[in-house]
Amino acid sequence: MIELVSAMSDRLGEVFGPKIKVYVSGAARGAGEACFLLTLLPPASGERGRASAIKLLYFPADGGEGWELLAVAERLMERLYTLTLWDGSLLRASKRRYEILDGTLHFFVHYRPLRPMRGLGTALPFKKGSALKS
Fold first, then answer.
1. What's the pLDDT tens digit per position in 69-110?
2. Which one of 12, 23, 84, 120 has the fewest CB atoms closer than 10 angstroms to its CB?
3. Nearest-10 Cα torsion for 6, 12, 15, 21
4. Burial class (CB in 10 A: 0-12, 13-18, 19+), 120
């Protein structure tokens, strides 16, 4: 599913800047540079529809420390909640988790299509000029 790979690469560029390298399954990474390796996984048994699973490996630059891996993991947890595909459809993350093994971050996420809720229009239930109060 090339759309998913492209959407994930775009999102990683948004979150970590355009200079971050994103390699796809099996590609060699550059020596000494921080980068991601993206692998599409088969959906878990019982997953239906367009559910997709991704494994991201994050390799820190030479000299990277454990705190960097934790910071990247937290950013991934926060910013990879939804992805937008080329056709504008949204995917929502589920089953997000990570682990750090041998100085590499392993991040796992499953995506499912986000369907619009039925019966909801685009109009807001507030009158013009009203303000929300907390």
1. 999 999 999 999 888 888 888 889 888 999 999 889 999 999
2. 120
3. -120
4. exposed
Angle, vertex CA 74, rays to CA 100 and CA 78, nearest 5: 140
Contact 107, 76 (CB under 8 A): yes
Break the chain down into helix, strand, coil percent, rounded to 5: 20, 35, 45
Q: Residue 116 corresponds to which tokens in the numbers above?
A: 């619009």
Q: List the structure tokens of 35.
A: 């980068």
Query: Which of 78-109 are b and which e, b meaning 16 or more Cβ less than 10 Å from the residue's Cβ?
Result: eebeebebeeeeebebeeeebeeeeeebbbeb
Q: Tokens 């390298």 appear where? A: 21
Joined tokens for residue 91: 């995917």
Cα 3 to Cα 86: distance, rounded to the nearest angstrom = 7
Residue 110 bridge partners (DSSP): 53, 94
Check residue 14 and give its pLDDT.
93
Q: Can you state the angle between helices 66-79 and 2-16, rounded to 10 degrees?
A: 120
